[in-house]
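hey can u run this one w/ adenosine monophosphate bound, need the structure tokens asap thx
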Amino acid sequence: MFIIFLGPPAVGKGTQASRLVAHLSAHHLSTGDMLRQVRREPSELGERLAELMDAGKLVSDEVVLDVVKSRMDVIGLDANYLFDGFPRTIAQAEALDAILSASDLAVNHVIELVVPDQVLVDRVKKRAALESRADDTPETVAKRVDIYREQTEPLVAFYGSRGIVSKVDGVGTVDEVFDRLISVLETGS
Ligand code: AMP
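ok here u go:
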């Protein structure tokens, strides 16, 4: 099963993704985590990634697809996947389609976690005070939200035409939101 988990920065996706993968016995493919691992290695690519990521900009489709493909090669396609932070562009979504359709597979479900913009802004302020991620300053998160609206939100229509998108309300306690996610995944509503 191939599930895509979409949502703007600070929507609470990371916390929910960790719980979902445990519940679903799925592999958690977080491109953000994978890219952070690459940037930690001293290399030219690492330096390039650091610059883009700290500025809240997207890494090139080519680099992202390289890390995703190599991870999928290791895991194999006979597994449950939760894609978190991927795809982020239509080109990435098309590339994922190509990988899956070559084995007669397809994305099964897309979940979009939604919260009102004001809630996002408040969460970002709290998070910036608590965490030390270089791309978590209010300014950079605002940039990441803009990029999400421009480049990633179109994926909702891209997959929506297949009838596989569910919107889930991300406002509430971690448990409340998790229960909504499970209910959507298990019953489709
Ligand atoms: P995340 O942890 O998902 O918020 O990702 C952190 C940063 O990694 C993003 O702001 C981008 O710079 C980069 N990144 C993660 N996933 C992708 C992706 N699918 N496409 C392009 N850039 C990505």
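Residues 38 and 46 are 6 Å apart (CA to CA). anyway lmk if its weird
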